[in-house]
């Protein structure tokens, strides 16, 4: 889950999220909200994402500012759960 959090939050292509689904939601003003272990146990889900599923949350009053923040300065808004996983990844990573 830590690696998944880092992939969605920290891995970039030209400053934007490497994952195309993440990039779509973040451009539209969402918050990277939650990573769910074994959230998709279908054969396709296991093959594509090791069964992990991600929730993006839209706070309607913040979508415009979140979108502008992401598009302008390439900053990803994320929940405490995701940020904690990112922090754990960074502490333990040898990258």
TrEMBL record:
One Pfam family, short name: MCD
Gene Ontology terms describing biological process: acetyl-CoA biosynthetic process; fatty acid biosynthetic process; malonyl-CoA catabolic process
Gene3D superfamilies: Malonyl-CoA decarboxylase, catalytic domain
Gene: Mlycd
GO MF terms, alphabetically ordered: malonyl-CoA decarboxylase activity
Record-linked PANTHER family: MALONYL-COA DECARBOXYLASE, MITOCHONDRIAL, PTHR28641
Cellular component, GO, one term: peroxisomal matrix
Transmembrane segments: none
Source organism superkingdom: Eukaryota
Span of domain Malonyl-CoA decarboxylase C-terminal: 1-58
The protein, known as: DCMC protein
């Amino acid at each position: 889950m830590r690696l998944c959090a880092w992939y969605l939050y920290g891995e970039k292509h030209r400053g934007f999220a490497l994952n195309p689904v993440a990039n779509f939601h973040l451009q539209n003003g969402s918050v990277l909200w939650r990573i769910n272990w074994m959230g998709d146990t279908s054969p396709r889900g296991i093959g594509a994402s090791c069964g992990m599923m991600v929730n993006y949350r839209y706070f309607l009053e913040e979508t415009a500012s979140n979108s502008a923040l992401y598009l302008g300065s390439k900053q990803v808004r994320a929940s405490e759960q995701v940020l904690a996983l990112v922090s754990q990844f960074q502490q333990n990573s040898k990258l």
